[in-house]
Amino acid sequence: MRLKSLELRDFRNYKSLKIDFSDDVNVLWGKNAQGKTNILEAIYFLATARSFRTLERKSLISWDSDKFLLGCRISNGAEKKLRILFSQRERKVSLNSKRVSKLSDLIGILRVVIFTPEDIFLLKGNPFKRRRFLDICISQIDRKYVGVLQKFKQVLIRRNFAVRKYGNRNNSFLWDEQLAENTAFIMGKREKVIARLAEKAGEYHRDITSGKERLRIEYRPSIKVKEISKREIFTHYEKHRRKDAEKLCTTTGPHRDDIDFFINGKDVRLFGSEGQQRSAVLSLKNAEFVLMKQETNETPLILADDVLPVLDRERKRAFLPSLKGNAQIFITCTDKKEIESIGAKAKIFRVFNGNVAGERV
Ligand SMILES: Nc1ncnc2c1ncn2[C@@H]1O[C@H](COP(=O)(O)OP(=O)(O)OP(=O)(O)O)[C@@H](O)[C@H]1O
Ligand SMILES: [Mg+2]
Question: Full-prediction pTM beyond 0.70?
Fold first, then answer.
């Protein structure tokens, strides 16, 4: 899969910009605060309908505007044109000039895996970050998951509202059938995907540590059942009704799931060194890339934001070649010297104050 070109209007610090990319490696190079990450953010948004930096989508709109526009040309055999117009009031998405009904329908048309220095918070941060990573990963592979997850969230909001209003009475639990059905689907998917990510991340981690470290990744579902089925999960929710009414919310479910990481049997979050934590996340991200490629038969784009400075020299040299395969890469950096470690075939863009100029190919 290739991103041929990108167009931005009133997005972050870009007034109006069009860029044609190389099918191979694209380097966005420039001083701090010029707009390098903003370009990756635009590409990420076209892929996932989200930012990787903020939950507030409106902060992507240029300060002196009330809407932004993103457009791109994608090639994967056929060519596709994707456009998004986003404002507080309206979101218009079109694929090949045909209107797409919801913003979330665009997920999976363009696929990306992102590497950033903040990835370490996937490990160190709260479970929300891990669930978000997992949900975005699965959503890009499986369209149905996007819809079921949205339904689950809606049903959860209704149930919580009813529990607060009616307490432990039947009215509170009218949605439990639906809740159980969506939960079973989400848990089943998460379990499968984590098992596959774990396997691939384990292999990669063994390689980058020359066999010294064994990385184990495990799904820690909030609901523990013998078998993930609608029936069992319904019974589980039923058993927890009294507690949910007491706590005025749904105390268990996919919204409380987590993922655990162990290196040589020890919890990486509690006992891992900074370097071990970085390697574990790198292995996970690498696994995400490989999984996405296998599941979709297409190579996702790699977005790498400022990752070179946080890698040690050995890993820096190994980072791109070990990942790349035939992926198209977008990498930002501030130090021109770093471009050398990226390789000769890169197309270099100089980013300066919301403008981008091709330097040399
Ligand atoms: N909504 C917005 N409207 C206008 N400008 C914005 C908006 N949001 C951020 N900016 C500006 O964008 C710039 C930051 O861009 P970006 O994060 O892409 O920088 P960068 O080149 O990646 O820098 P660094 O090397 O420090 O990571 C800042 O100057 C910031 O003020
Ligand atoms: Mg940046």
Answer: yes
